[in-house]
């Protein structure tokens, strides 16, 4: 369920009044977005899951930290980013998926097949993002994928708009070169 | 088609905004109409973004589905127990029976949060983590 900013504000008002169901609805409604943001920042699906769990706890405990001056999604993005950078720092150097190992896995069940396919997908996305620093990945996600303006993304990331534009330009060039040079077979 | 125009379009392709990629300006569109190589590159970049978007969405859905909230009936039972305790303080609190809950939700971990607490259950392939938190609204 995608929640609009107005819908989010209504839920927050209900939470202010002690409505526990509203808190669950808020977190449930933002869950996919939280995981996706975390996935982009950490580059690892298990780390993203850890981040999402941390953020859900944080929201239950500290939703009062949202003062309503910014958009809720901007505030939430900051919470996710802080948690993601923390988790990423902890698990830096984790093993990556090896394509050859994946290809050698026996296809015993449909579930396992689906899992292998998802792992290939994860590996491919990691390949796309491999040469982009976290900030550049975040800008690609917020601007090119979500459709925010560079200024909005800069605000969410706590950087100057001019800085965001420079990073965004570098990120686009790097990502598109990877798409064109390394994975031509994917898009023929 | 000139070589210069091709170099210009390739450079543009690497830095253009997404809206421009989908609807190129007239000068670029004219070149793309004539040049198979450049139009193929544009298609590959757009397909790459689509794959990135669909891939992130799919991985997100898969992993979001792996962590769940405590079964709502148990939370409701805990809330009911808290309410009854408040109405009749001399009586012991009513709590949902873990055995009954296990029978009702055989695949779910049984969590009985105390009144005023909230349970968050996170299940992964290799472990189950249960967080008990004190619920608070905005002060």
Could you describe the 3D structure shown?
The complex is a heterodimer of chains A (188) and B (139). Chain A folds into two domains: 5-90, RNA polymerase sigma factor, region 2, helix turn helix motif (Rna Polymerase Sigma Factor, Chain: A, Orthogonal Bundle); 99-187, Winged helix-like DNA-binding domain superfamily/Winged helix DNA-binding domain (Arc Repressor Mutant, subunit A), CATH 1.10.10. Chain A is 74% helix and 0% strand. Chain A contains nine helices and no strands. Chain A has helices at residues 5-16, 20-42, 45-62, 72-90, 99-104, 110-129, 134-145, 150-157, 161-181. Chain A starts with a helix and ends in a 7-residue tail after the last helix. Residues 93-110 of chain A have low confidence and may be disordered. Chain B folds into two domains: 3-64, no CATH class; 67-134, no CATH class. Chain B contains six helices and three strands. Chain B has helices at 3-15, 18-22, 26-34, 36-64, 72-87, 98-104; strands spanning 67-69, 117-123, 128-134. In chain B, strands 1-2-3 form a three-stranded antiparallel sheet, with no helix packed on it. In chain B, a hairpin with a 4-residue loop joins β2 (117-123) and β3 (128-134). Chain B starts with a helix and ends in a 5-residue tail after the last strand. Chains A and B meet through α1, α2, α3, α6 and α7 of A and α1, α4, β2 and β3 of B.
